[in-house]
Amino acid sequence: MAVGAAASLAGLARSELILLLAGVVPLVLAAHPLSRELRIKWVAASVGVAIAMVLPWAAYNQARFAKPVPLSTGLGLVLVSSNCDAEYYGQSIGYWWFNCSSAGSVAARATTTEDHSELDGEMRKVAVRYAKQHPSRLPAVATARLGRMFGVFQPENSITLSNAGEGIDRWIGGAITSTWWLAMALGAVGGVTLRRRGQQLSPLLMPVIVIAITAVVSYGIVRFRAPCEPAVLVLAGVTVDQICRWFEARGAGSPEATVRPRPAVTRPR
């Protein structure tokens, strides 16, 4: 139930994080020490708690918007910001740009309605229509989005774009990129280590999968990566722990660390 509550709260903060509910809660079904009936009850309870927590907000949205809005009306703006010529063919491929947001809003006739749910729907149509008109570019764009999300596609260019579009100083962007690379490398080793120990990695990998889906659907940006960073750091911590243990074991077995008995002192008579 706690997992269901946490996933629903995350979804209320950022809509895409509701996917954690679909990815993590079913893992209870693989908890073999528990009986099948108990596992099903726990899953149902988690889903029920999540629905109960989201329902008041969703009900409030139905009362104030013309169209159904379970969580938010931001998807349309996100999509038009990244489905345009600049983000399909330009130097900022896989990213977003304000001019695309403005053009998408105009194409969706933003000035003709004051209802955000209707405007959001029109923006989604504009973005999907553009994507359908450029199908040959979708593989390259999706790859660039993933690469930018994980900091491996044109990192220098991503730092420049973050500075221009997000106001992140270049030295901060460089520090973010370098420390993220280190965390990913250590996290990969930590993941292999836990897997060899027979540990279940799914709870830690689900946030990574969620932001990968987010990138493919929207665009790759540092702040969208935040939900998976704790999981990567946990895996990196496993590697750091292994390194520390290795140094401790090596130090304990070194000649300098061996306690030698002091020679007996013979006093003259």
> What is the rounded Rg?
26 Å
Mean pLDDT: 85
The profile of the biggest β sheet is: none
Tell me the strand percentage band: under 5%
Give the SSE string: HHHHHHHHHHHH
Count of DSSP H/I helices: 12
From the N-terminal CA to the C-terminal CA, the straight-line distance is 81 Å
Query: Which shape, going by the Cα principal axes?
Result: flat
SS-derived structural category:
mainly alpha
Unreliable residue runs: none
Helical content class: 55-70%
- Structurally, the number of domains stands at 3
Total beta strand runs: 0
Q: In words, what does this structure look like?
A:
The chain has 269 residues and is an all-alpha fold. The protein contains twelve helices and no strands. The chain folds into three domains: 1-69, no CATH class; 73-133, no CATH class; 138-251, no CATH class. The mean pLDDT is 85.
What does this entry show, briefly?
By secondary structure, this protein is mainly alpha-helical. The protein is built from twelve helices and no strands. Helix content is 66%, strand content 0%.
Overview features:
269 residues, mainly alpha, 3 domains, 66% helix
Map the helices and strands.
Blueprint (H helix, E strand, L loop, with lengths): L1 H12 L5 H6 L11 H29 L10 H8 L2 H5 L8 H10 L8 H18 L4 H12 L5 H11 L4 H27 L5 H16 L11 H24 L17
Helix pairs in contact: 1-3, 4-6, 4-7, 8-11, 9-10, 10-12, 11-12
